[in-house]
Structure prediction request, 310 residues.
Amino acid sequence: MPPHPSATLPFPAGVLDNDGRLTQELPCRRCHYNLLFQPGEADCPECGLPVRDTLFADRLRYADPAWLESLRCGLLWHLLLIGASFAVGIILVIMRFIDTDSPLPERVGHLFMLLILTPLWALASWWITAPEPDSPIAEPSAARRAARVLVLVPVAYAVPSLALGVAELFSPDLLTRASSTTETFTPLGVVHHTLASVTEFLGFVGLLCLAFFFRGLARRADRLGLAKQTTALAWVWIGLMVALALLTAALTLPGSGAGTQAAGSAVLGCGGGLVGLAALVWTLVLSILYLRMLGAQVRAAEHFRALAER
Prediction:
């Protein structure tokens, strides 16, 4: 394994005294031993990790450039898929406007989500959450590991959901049963929609985990303002989902009158839509900022790797 790029870098000013020993308390990145008064060129007396690695190795500019490029490509694919979803959504709205009774727009959207969007989104998320190579000292990211698991849930459910969607084309009463006044779910439909709701919830949690993972990356890149914005945005999304869930539950209470339900539905549709749109725009802006940040970190990491190999 080539030496870490930090092996050739000078120590920051004020870190070492005249004898070359650390002047501040610094826990070892691997075993958390206090490295105060240890020589800067020495190893940790407990675990043998070089003191330099504790000082430098958590910075993104010293990470593997290939890993950083994987993160950047995964994020770029996320942005492209969001744009493709908007384009397909507009086309489906136009199709629905042309023929309000046709089930085709809903089925096309369903197939697009299952066959194209979900697999590519999961692949991009898999790139983004790849473990950092050649970094035994890096603290494990629980958010990264959780996101990597949760992004597989929609893919795992896509196969049975697609099979049910195809079967429903030949048997319209497979999931729902319509009467003269109402439309009710069949037992299979209840199971299907329950699993779909659970899958959507887990996917949302996975996106939150991705956000917190990227917040950690921003901190490692010394972009503390970007990290704070990411935290604020995550809480906005959490608050929005909780508010929509509570309002939806209130509208389904047995005592809710028709007027209350109509007013609540208007608030739910307009207010939730506006807040969600604002949060989505904010998400896209931060994603672009993260894309630029990762591009700069890739260039910096390549520079330091080149210095280490001389």
Q: What stands out?
A: The longest strand covers residues 176-178. The two ends are 15 Å apart (CA to CA). The beta strands are 176-178, 183-185. The first helix runs from residue 51 to 56.
